[in-house]
């Protein structure tokens, strides 16, 4: 355990050397309420960070020439943003979210709404320039985890499920399929998940040879860390994931929320007091054996909110007595901008977590803004990750966050 912590600490030091060498905000910087194009931190800070060793420089891919990355986003089928309004120049891949399996047949359940929305989605994106790849995402946070456990645990049910995903993807013209199982409950589920990935990939290859069409992509959204503890400890089947998936998408958000009685930054890059952070999570995936270029890091386009116990005690970790503005403690980015402006909120940047937070009265919001997204994308590039994805389309403000990611990828190339 001590050696693991030492390894992760060394990884973190190398990361911060690259990511924060141009960082110019201290923890105490307080900024006025944002009004776009962006809030730009201006106060200088001197960071005392050690130089990386020669062996560290040789072992980390940020010293290699960068390559174009994946810039993906999920489009919820219930989104108020029409598929025709998606600005594809900011993305390379768009996920349709979500379809779920039938609890009786284990085939995908294409609802009456999906019968309308999927063709609209595919037609709209095919008509746009530049072209993007489309993936059919299956599951989601509100889906039945037990149902996926049943499917993964039976050869017959796996076969029905896999065939259905291929049939639906081909019928509507998707370029790939994506699994978002939140979350396998134990090591038995994880072992069965490994078999599901293996058989799924075989099915995709076989179908490609038979149809003489390009193989459908196979990806998976996963917990932010490769191993985690909820009711009991469990670890993802990293070897099989590396072998059978085109890429793995750690969801680097929802570290804190309405389940906490204190404020928190729900997509913190680093947390000096715990391993609930993106640095730890991505480090754990790399340590598990997933190549960095197969990791596509998740970024949120929404914040988490709380009601402060005492408006005068309003920093990160302040006591809270419930949720703040938004839907059950969740507020999408464009509404955060509106809230901050309307309520003359005080906005602060936490340079350790590389995240923003704001408060007005007893309302407190932790979220990402353009400068923090900029640094998190640089973090992904510094490790040679495959790219990033956003949850979700329809939550941005005039494409400010989406555009920032595209700008950084292109300029770093």
From TrEMBL:
Sorted UniProt keywords: Glycoprotein, Glycosidase, Hydrolase, Signal
Family: Belongs to the glycosyl hydrolase 18 family. Chitinase class V subfamily.
GO BP of this protein: carbohydrate metabolic process; chitin catabolic process
Domain GH18: 69-413
Signal peptide start and end residues: 1-28
Any one GO MF annotation of this record: chitinase activity
CDD domains: GH18_plant_chitinase_class_V (cd02879)
GO cellular component: extracellular region
Protein name: GH18 domain-containing protein
Transmembrane regions listed in the UniProt entry: none
């Amino acid at each position: 355990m001590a050696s693991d912590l030492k390894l992760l600490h060394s990884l973190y030091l190398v990361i911060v050397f690259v990511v924060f060498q141009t960082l110019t905000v201290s923890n105490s910087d307080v900024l006025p309420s944002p009004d776009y194009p962006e809030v730009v931190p201006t106060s200088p800070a001197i960071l005392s960070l050690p130089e990386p060793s020669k062996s560290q420089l040789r072992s980390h891919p940020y010293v290699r020439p960068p390559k174009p990355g994946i810039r993906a986003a999920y489009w919820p089928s219930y989104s108020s943003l029409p598929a025709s309004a998606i600005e594809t120049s900011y993305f390379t891949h768009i996920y349709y979210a979500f379809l779920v399996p039938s609890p009786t047949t284990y085939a995908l359940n294409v609802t009456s709404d999906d019968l309308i929305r999927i063709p609209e989605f595919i037609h709209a994106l095919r008509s746009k320039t530049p072209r993007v790849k489309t993936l059919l995402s299956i599951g989601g946070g509100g889906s039945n985890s037990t149902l996926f456990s049943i499917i993964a645990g039976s050869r017959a049910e796996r076969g029905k499920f896999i065939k259905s995903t291929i049939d639906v993807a081909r019928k509507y013209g998707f370029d790939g399929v994506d699994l978002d199982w939140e979350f396998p409950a134990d090591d038995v589920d994880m072992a069965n998940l490994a078999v599901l990935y293996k058989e799924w990939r075989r099915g995709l290859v076989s179908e490609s040879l038979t149809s003489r069409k390009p193989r459908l992509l196979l990806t998976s959204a996963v917990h932010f860390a490769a191993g985690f503890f909820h009711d009991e400890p469990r670890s993802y089947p990293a070897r099989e994931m590396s072998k059978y998936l085109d890429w793995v998408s750690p969801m680097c958000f929802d570290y804190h929320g309405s389940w906490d009685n204190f404020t928190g930054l729900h997509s913190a890059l680093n947390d000096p007091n715990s391993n609930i952070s993106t640095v730890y999570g991505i480090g754990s995936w790399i340590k598990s054996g997933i190549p960095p270029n197969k990791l596509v890091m998740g970024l949120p386009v929404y914040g988490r909110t709380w009601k402060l116990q005492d408006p005068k005690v309003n920093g990160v970790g302040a006591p809270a007595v419930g949720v703040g503005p938004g839907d059950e403690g969740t507020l999408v980015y464009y509404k955060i901008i509106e809230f901050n402006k309307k309520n003359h909120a005080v906005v602060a940047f936490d340079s350790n977590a590389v995240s923003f937070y704001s408060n007005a009265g007893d309302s407190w919001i932790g979220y990402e803004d353009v400068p923090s997204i900029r640094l998190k994308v640089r973090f992904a590039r510094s490790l040679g990750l495959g790219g990033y994805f956003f949850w979700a389309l329809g939550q941005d403000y005039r494409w400010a966050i989406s555009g920032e990611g595209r700008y950084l990828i292109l300029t770093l190339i």
